[in-house]
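Sample entry as discussed:
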Amino acid sequence: MEELDLLSEVARLYYEKNLTQSEISRCIHTSRSTVSRLLQESRDRKVVEIIIHYPWDRSSSMEQELQQKFGLNNVRVLDSQGRRGSEALRGVALLAARYIDGIIKDGSILGLSWGRMVYQTVQVLQPERDLSIKAVQLFGTAIPNNKIDGSEVVRLFAGKYKGQYYSLHAPLFVENPLLKQALLQDPHIRETLELAQQADIVITGIGSLESTLAPSQTWLGYLSRKEIDQVRQLGAVGHICAHHYDSDGKILEINLNRGIIGAGLSVLHSAPHVIGIACGTEKSRAILGALRGKHINTLITDDITARTLLE
């Protein structure tokens, strides 16, 4: 702890107080080379994280094309400027965060899904005001004690606005129908799911089942690789709010969908703002299915994915 305190203090003096390395060395009675080493160590050990805020632009022409082609309420398309991977993901997350902060208001009820894209969006969200909002977990816990899971996402989101959050203390999926009904009768679970139905904003990722992608660790907790392949063979191309659907967006009649503990897809078709955040050409078929099924009415993605969708 003493070592971490030292790293934190050196980083604070350098990054927040704007002292030079020589000035810091005099403050803590050591050499300048030691200060340089401590600053590097503070970055290596994640005491300090440096984030570069790129001047991201939007592709308005693609936004208009997608909006007209799929009858969407709103579209945001990131002009990636050739950036790929984690840089592009962060750019889409920033675009999504700005959009969400622009439509959220005092008294809003937000239903949140889980996943890497939703988590990144919430992470980069930097509101400048406190709001009396309610953030609600839409379905049960998929990956216990994981930062991208629903319970952690709603807690983090609510904290950004100093609002309230409602976790769903139940598993994502149960195979036994009687057990599912018993869980749904639990007063806390019932209250949370009833509140989810009142959401005026829903924020969700879009998962892909492309065979080129490794199976999600979430689903490997419930299905074998063989069973995941069988779901693909039944026509599944993606999942939204844990429900698997085909290329036309039709929800599959499978046990996996029937056993989900959650608000159901009715919340996606009733909320005024249903924001799907996803990018990557490997997700194109999944996004297309979500658009055809009218499971979202707002899409936030990047220009490369948008071009694939339009083609």
